[in-house]
C-alpha cells in the first residue's frame, strides 16, 4: 500500500525579537512572572511591512530545498493560518504565486493552534489516496496582529513565525496515524470575536480565559496521547520524540510526564518563540531535524490544542 513520508522541513522567524524586559516597559508584568507561568523569555514579532505570507514563503523555500523538490513538482499546497494576509485569495494561493507554482490545488485551513496538525492530516490523505504525489504543508502566523498589546493576559504569550514540510508518496510510513477533534461548545474561552461575516461585531483582538484554557488543554492533550498510542498498539516506550504545540512550558511538561518522557526527548522552543499558533509545531520540528536531534527512522509524536476548541495529533516515523 501507499504511505506518506516527510521529505524536507523548513522554517522562518521575523528578525525582530521582543524580550520580556521589553514587555515590562509596556504593560504591568514582569520577566519572572512570564518565565515562571509560561517558560517564555522572548518572541519574534513581524516588522510592520512583513506579512504572514512572507514568513510562509521563506519557510516553504527552505523545506523545498531540504526535500530536493521544485515548486513545479508540487501537486498540493495547504497553509494553516489564523492570520491570512487577505480575506481572499487564500494564503495558499498567494504563496503559490510567490513560488511560481501553477495549477495545483491550494487552500487554507483554519484550526488556530491545531492548524498544522489539521493541514498535515488532510494533505496526508490526498497522498495516501493517490490524489497527490508531493504536497507542501505550511503553518504560518502573525498572531501579533490580533493581540491587544495593552492586555497583559495575552500579549506576553504569543509570537510570529512559520514552519513547513514537503511530504511525498512512499512505500512505508512515514505518517502512521493522525487524529483530529473539535468542540465548538468551548468557543468563548479563546476567540477573536470580530470577523467579516458578523460585520466586524466585537473586539478584533484575542480574548482568552487563560486558566480555563489551561485546565482543558492539559486534560485533552493527555487523552489525545492515549488515543494515538492505543490506535497503533503502541506504548509510551515506543515514542522517541514529542514535538508539542508550544503554548506554555507547564502544559508541555504535563504531557511529557503523561508519556513518561524525559524533557531531553521533548522539543521545546516556547522560550525563544512564544506561542506561534499553527507555526509552532513545524518550527520546532524543523529546528530539531536541522540540529540533528531527530534522526531518520525515529518515532515522533506531534500534538496540539487550540481555539475552537480544536485538538489533534500526528504519529510518524521520520
Ligand atoms: N503579568 C503579571 N501578572 C499577570 C499577567 C502578566 N502577564 N497575566 C495575568 N496576570 C495575573 C492575573 O491578573 C492574576 O492576578 P490576580 O490573581 O490578582 O487576579 C494572576 O496573574 C494569575 O492569573 P491566572 O490566569 O490564574 O494565571 P495562570 O497561572 O493560569 O497563568 C496563563 C496564566 C499563563 C495564561 C495560563 O493560564 C496559560 O498558559 N493558559 C493557557 C493559555 C494557552 O495556552 N492559550 C493558547 C491556547 S492555543 C491557541 O489556540 C491560541
Automatic annotation (TrEMBL):
Domain (Beta-ketoacyl-[acyl-carrier-protein] synthase III C-terminal): residue spans on this chain: 229-318
Protein name per UniProt: Beta-ketoacyl-[acyl-carrier-protein] synthase III
Compartments, record wording: Cytoplasm
GO terms under cellular component: cytoplasm
SUPFAM superfamilies membership: Thiolase-like
Main location group: cytoplasm
Segments forming domain Beta-ketoacyl-[acyl-carrier-protein] synthase III N-terminal: 107-184
Keywords from the named record: Acyltransferase, Cytoplasm, Fatty acid biosynthesis, Fatty acid metabolism, Lipid biosynthesis, Lipid metabolism, Multifunctional enzyme, Transferase
GO biological process: one example: fatty acid biosynthetic process
Catalyzed chemical reaction(s): malonyl-[ACP] + acetyl-CoA + H(+) = 3-oxobutanoyl-[ACP] + CO2 + CoA
Domains: entry comment: The last Arg residue of the ACP-binding site is essential for the weak association between ACP/AcpP and FabH.
Quaternary context: Homodimer.
Gene3D superfamilies: 3.40.47.10
Associated pathway: Lipid metabolism; fatty acid biosynthesis
Organism: Lamprobacter modestohalophilus
UniProt keyword Repeat, yes or no: no
Amino acid at each position: 500500500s501507499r504511505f506518506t513520508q516527510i521529505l524536507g522541513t523548513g522554517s522562518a522567524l521575523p528578525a525582530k525579537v521582543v524580550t520580556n524586559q521589553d514587555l515590562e516597559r509596556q504593560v504591568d508584568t514582569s520577566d519572572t512572572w512570564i518565565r515562571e507561568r509560561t517558560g517564555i523569555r522572548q518572541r519574534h514579532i513581524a516588522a510592520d511591512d512583513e506579512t504572514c505570507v512572507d514568513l510562509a514563503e521563506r519557510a516553504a523555500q527552505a523545506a523545498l530545498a531540504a526535500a530536493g523538490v521544485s515548486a513545479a513538482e508540487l501537486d498540493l499546497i495547504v497553509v494553516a493560518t489564523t492570520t491570512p494576509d487577505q480575506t481572499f485569495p487564500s494564503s495558499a494561493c498567494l504563496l503559490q504565486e510567490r513560488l511560481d507554482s501553477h495549477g495545483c490545488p491550494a487552500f487554507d485551513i483554519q484550526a488556530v493552534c491545531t492548524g498544522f496538525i489539521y493541514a498535515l492530516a488532510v494533505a496526508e490523505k490526498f497522498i495516501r489516496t493517490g490524489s497527490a504525489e508531493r504536497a507542501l504543508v505550511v503553518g504560518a502566523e502573525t498572531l501579533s496582529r490580533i493581540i491587544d498589546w495593552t492586555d497583559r493576559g495575552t500579549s506576553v504569550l504569543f509570537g510570529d513565525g512559520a514552519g513547513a514540510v514537503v511530504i511525498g508518496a512512499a512505500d512505508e510510513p512515514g505518517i502512521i496515524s493522525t487524529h483530529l477533534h473539535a468542540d465548538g461548545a468551548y468557543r468563548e474561552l479563546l476567540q477573536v470575536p470580530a470577523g467579516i461575516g458578523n460585520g466586524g461585531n466585537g473586539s478584533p483582538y484575542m480574548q482568552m480565559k487563560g486558566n480555563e484554557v489551561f485546565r482543558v488543554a492539559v486534560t485533552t492533550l493527555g487523552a489525545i496521547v492515549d488515543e494515538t498510542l492505543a490506535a497503533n498498539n503502541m506504548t509510551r516506550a515506543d515514542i522517541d520524540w514529542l514535538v508539542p504545540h508550544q503554548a506554555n512550558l507547564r502544559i508541555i511538561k504535563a504531557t511529557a510526564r503523561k508519556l513518561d518522557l524525559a524533557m531531553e526527548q521533548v522539543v521545546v522552543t516556547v522560550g525563544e518563540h512564544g506561542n506561534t499558533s499553527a507555526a509552532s509545531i513545524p518550527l520546532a520540528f524543523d529546528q530539531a531535524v536541522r540540529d540533528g536531534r531527530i534522526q531518520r527512522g525515529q518515532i515522533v509524536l506531534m500534538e496540539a490544542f487550540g481555539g475552537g476548541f480544536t485538538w489533534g495529533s500526528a504519529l510518524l516515523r521520520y
